[in-house]
Write a structure and sequence with these properties.
By secondary structure, the chain is an alpha/beta fold. It is built from 26 helices and 19 strands. Strands 9, 10, 11, 12, 13, 14, 15, 16 and 17 form a nine-stranded mixed β-sheet that branches. Bound molecules: acetamide (ACM).
Length: 667
């Protein structure tokens, strides 16, 4: 054995070379030193999938810095088709990757790239395997179409963090995005002309397969079908015409479950789709069925009565049973959102739980296999830490988890920023052992992964800078960037309540141009906690951050005033300045200044009156103004996330002043 120094990876001492490792392997020992690698031998792994992966690997590795005449990575693999495990041993004299099958080679090569330093591949011994076999990302391409290139970028990024299921949400009220030769009106009348040709679908499925990713297409039925019914109105429960939706609520158009013609359509259409999508699983949606169309139809009501179907749930279950029979005939396994759960479905059915963990427990309790998506909704704009804490749990019927990217407020321009790098934290939750849960370590490694994603061509960073620069116009982007680090987009579904959006609304405002989570604000919140705990260094750094936010106001104001898309931000920018100033006052031991007129101890936020006056000036409708100013923290769909830590700081300073005063009185 060569001389080495073993770090069993505990989080306290994460060696620099491991700071891009994500997902964290099942077992990792880092050793001293590194080995420059420039070649790879696949003589013991002839599988074409692995060979193509090795070519891509060498290309990526060579871009890191050409070390001439480096060592060879020796790769050995067996023929196990689905096994993703691998063993990696890198010393200062040799590098070996061994796996039971080609997929393990793919996963292991990503680990090698994550271990690459300027001195070579960091010496390490790694034994790795996934915790779950279903580690997915769902992408909606209906509310806003995502061109093939945008889809391929997600596949590249997914492969980097060892995800293995791409769930492609291809039909919804706003469009059906796949070309059908049997039902061509689907693309001509069921979309705005934006759809994937069959050749593109085949190419993307192959692209995914090459990266060890299965593609599970979703054709949502019987609700979320406005686009299908726009193309074929005779399938609808109530007489058409049905328009393609331009907005997104739970719309009333729904298929007619009583008509044989509907099942003929479903069978022929899905039959055609199975020639494009070889995966054994087929997702049939089944979520958010609006029962009003069924309730309004005397014919459907009579049918329900005749067949003993009770209410919406009974009719939905009948539809799903017939759907399921068709899917079995097509030699596929049905996946559906948790609303489909019903004892009539065959026990091979997979239930995707989105409404709650309870839905998953109910499904697995009744013998169905399940995938957890509740808690993994990327469109909720929560932090990486929030998603990281979400765990599908253990149980043989739990296949794994899937993050969902619904794109009502997302376009191809900012989709990377909406998914990455947070998705990497979810990938770790789904791949790594349950015991890997240190949040600070995750964030440290997320920075490393984020840089590697950019290297791979993912646009989460570049699109942010491009969009901010477009807003700043001829001005320097820096002040806008500084302001934006104090802000995050509103969480959950708040956007849908603040403005009237349609599919045509441009997504080009500040809220669209900044990431869901400000890592700077997160660092600031940690510093404030440490400062309150008495850490002088943290106090100093927090002070300089607050000064930067406060003093940035002068520089950012002319930028905000120069672009009509940004003038709406002025009140919010003022608020950020005032919050920062309040924080500095608290650091100076003068928190009394924060007493607002109403006697509550809050930072000097814009008052409702000022808020209303400013918004009215920009021609907002009175109702919008009332709503936005009722909760001034959510002005313009942005949250000044530095507010909460500053509040803690103010409270702490107020408390320590009070105890000093009482000591003085007592003394
Ligand atoms: C869903 O989010 N409607 C599945």
């Amino acid at each position: 054995m060569p001389l080495f120094f073993v770090f069993i990876l505990c989080i306290a001492a994460l060696p620099a070379a491991a700071q891009s490792l994500m997902p964290m392997p099942a077992q990792t020992s880092m050793h001293e030193g590194a080995l420059p690698v420039t070649r790879a031998s696949t003589a013991d792994c002839a599988d074409p999938l692995a060979q193509r992966a090795v070519e891509r690997f060498l290309t990526r590795l060579s871009k890191r810095g050409p070390t001439p005449n480096g060592a060879e990575l020796h790769i050995r693999c067996g023929a196990a088709a689905e096994d993703e495990s691998y063993t990696l041993r890198v010393t200062t004299s040799s590098a070996r990757l061994a796996a039971p099958g080609p997929l393990g080679v793919l996963r292991g090569l990503e680990t090698v790239l994550q271990l690459a330093t300027e001195k070579g591949i960091a010496a390490a011994t790694i034994e790795d395997r996934p915790r779950y076999r279903w580690r997915g990302l769902m992408l909606d391409v209906c509310r806003h179409f995502m061109p093939a290139e945008a889809v391929k970028r997600q596949l590249d990024a997914m492969a980097m963090v060892k995800l293995n299921v791409f769930h492609w949400h291809l039909s919804d009220d706003q469009g059906i995005r796949v070309e059908s030769k049997l039902y061509p009106r689907l693309q001509t009348h069921g979309s705005d002309g934006k759809f994937y040709t069959q050749a593109q679908i085949r190419e993307i499925v192959q692209y995914a397969r090459d990266r060890g990713i299965r593609v599970v297409p979703e054709f949502d039925m019987p609700g979320h079908t406005s686009a299908i019914l726009a193309a074929y109105p005779s399938l609808a429960a109530t007489p058409g015409p049905v328009p393609i939706a331009k907005t997104w609520t739970i719309l009333s158009p729904v298929m007619d479950p009583t008509r044989d013609e509907v099942y003929t359509f479903v069978e022929r259409f899905l039959g055609e789709m199975t020639t494009l999508f070889p995966d054994r699983y087929l997702h049939m949606g089944g979520d958010e069925v609006n029962g009003s169309g069924w309730a309004r139809s005397p014919k459907i009501q009579a049918f329900a009565k005749e067949n003993g179907l009770s209410g919406k749930a009974g009719i939905h279950a009948y539809f799903n049973k017939r759907l399921s029979d068709i899917i079995i005939k097509l030699n596929r396994i049905m996946v559906g959102w948790d609303e489909i759960l019903h004892p009539d479905l065959p026990d091979t059915t997979v239930v995707q739980s989105w409404r709650g963990v309870k839905a998953m427990e109910k499904a697995t309790g009744q013998g169905y296999r399940s995938i957890l998506s509740n808690g993994f909704y990327l469109d909720h704009m929560k932090s990486a830490a929030y998603h990281y804490a979400n765990d599908p749990g253990d149980g043989e019927r739990i296949l794994g988890g899937e993050a969902c990217m619904w794109v009502e407020y997302v376009t191809a321009e900012n989709v990377d920023m909406r998914i990455w790098p947070r998705m990497a934290a979810i990938a770790e939750r789904l791949w790594s052992p349950a015991s890997v849960r240190d949040v600070e370590s995750m964030y440290t490694r997320l920075r490393g992964v984020s840089a590697q994603l950019t290297e791979l061509g993912i646009q989460h960073e570049t699109s942010r800078m491009k969009m901010l620069q477009r807003l700043a116009g001829k001005h320097s982007v820096k002040p806008l960037e500084v302001l934006s680090t104090a802000l995050e987009p509103v969480k959950m579904y708040a956007r849908s309540t603040s403005r009237a959006y349609t599919t045509a609304t441009p997504m080009n405002r500040l809220v669209d141009s900044i990431p869901p989570e400000s890592l700077t604000a997160r660092q600031f919140a940690n510093l404030i906690n440490e400062a309150i705990g008495g850490n002088a260094g943290a106090r100093l750094t927090a002070r300089s951050m607050l000064e930067q936010w406060r003093d940035n106001h002068k520089a950012v104001l002319p930028i905000l005033q120069s672009n009509p898309l940004l003038t709406e931000i002025v009140p919010l920018a003022t608020m950020v300045r005032d919050i920062a100033a309040a924080g500095l006052d608290a650091l100076d031991g003068k928190p009394a200044k924060l007493m607002a007129g109403d006697g509550k101890r809050v930072p000097p936020l814009v008052t409702q009156r000022t808020c209303a006056a400013i918004l009215m000036q920009y021609g907002r409708r009175r109702t919008t103004v009332r709503r936005q100013c009722a909760e001034p923290r959510y002005l313009e769909e942005l949250v000044p996330v530095i507010l909460e830590p500053v509040r803690r700081l103010v409270d702490s300073a107020t408390a320590s002043n009070a105890s000093r005063d009482s000591r003085r009185r007592a003394g």
